[in-house]
Amino acid sequence: MKKGYADTTRGQVHYCREGDNGPDLFLFHESPLSSREFERCIPILGRSTRVVAFDTPGYGASDAPEAPTTIEDYASWLLEAIDAVGVEEFDVAGVHTGAAIAVELIRKAGRRVTHAVFSGMPLMSAERKA
Predict the structure, then answer these.
(1) pTM to 2 decimal places
(2) Are 11 and 62 a contacting pair, CB within 8 Å?
(3) Phi/psi class of residue 11: alpha, beta or left (left: φ > 0; alpha: ψ in -120 to 50)?
(4) Where does the pLDDT of residue 32 fall: very low under 50, low under 70, confident under 90, or very high at 90 and above?
(5) Averaged pLDDT, 45-53
(6) b/e map 70-88, b = 16+ CB within 10 Å
């Protein structure tokens, strides 16, 4: 498994990656964990995809936000990291907080996202979110 950083305007986003062919797949972890959540499945997924697991900003080895950050902010930041990695069309998968980030990222990236998998999607009413 290779590790690296995507440079963004807000700071560096750490990632782990594996695989050289197949579709590009980005994994988003739950809070307060890191990409280490996926370390056992990255080599397996890397057999048939180019898989990248980011550390959400402020977690793992990624730079921390300078101010309170919303799910929408995280999605914008991570989409910028995807752009820095140089990928146009991709798949996403997220767990809990990572699923919420992935949904917002899909809203921002549109048709660039071809497939999505969510686990433990947090479904809350507007009142609960507030």
Answers:
(1) 0.93
(2) yes
(3) left
(4) very high
(5) 98
(6) ebebbbbbbbbbbebbebe
